[in-house]
Amino acid sequence: MKKFKLLISGLALCLALASCEDPNLPFQQFPELAYGAVARLLSPATFAAAGTFKKADVPGSKLVFTVDFYDEDKGKNVESFAFLVKFTDRKNAGANNKAEKALVTYNSTQFTTHPKYGTQTLDVTITYQQVLTLLELTAEQVNVADRFEFQVVITKKDGKVFKASNTSAEFVNSTGGFGFPMEFRRDVL
């Protein structure tokens, strides 16, 4: 029993000594940190409700949504907001796959100021026909369950670029706090 008490006492002493000293942790002052930028979905209520691409309704299929931008100055340091898109032919084992291309870029001159929040705001419409034309696809080449994959690129006025690959996971998909994904897909219905 005496050996057990000595063992416990020795472990307690080692633990106490090891926990007394704090390592010298690096610390950056807030003004020295790198500032990013993100988009927040204002409408519709969820990104899933922004729209669909329907094989039977090419002219009526579109994505429509409104975003505002957040950075250290309420989005005023965002230079552009762009979309890239690629196509995956899931029915024909990739026979008609299309590589990623730049779909559209909105410059800061197209942003407006939100009357309530004071943030920079943008209304976006992406039509199914616009995507088909860019990727040089016909409606006949696209089948139900084929997939369009979109990447969002936010560029700041200082030249910093933010996309899914260098953005925190909370902002990559639409379940994060801002509700707007940095990458998303639409399967053809």
Automatic annotation (TrEMBL):
Signal peptide (from-to): 1-21
Record keywords, A-Z: Signal
PROSITE patterns: PROKAR_LIPOPROTEIN
UniProt KW Signal keyword: yes
Protein's UniProt name: Lipoprotein
Annotated source species: Haliscomenobacter hydrossis (strain ATCC 27775 / DSM 1100 / LMG 10767 / O)
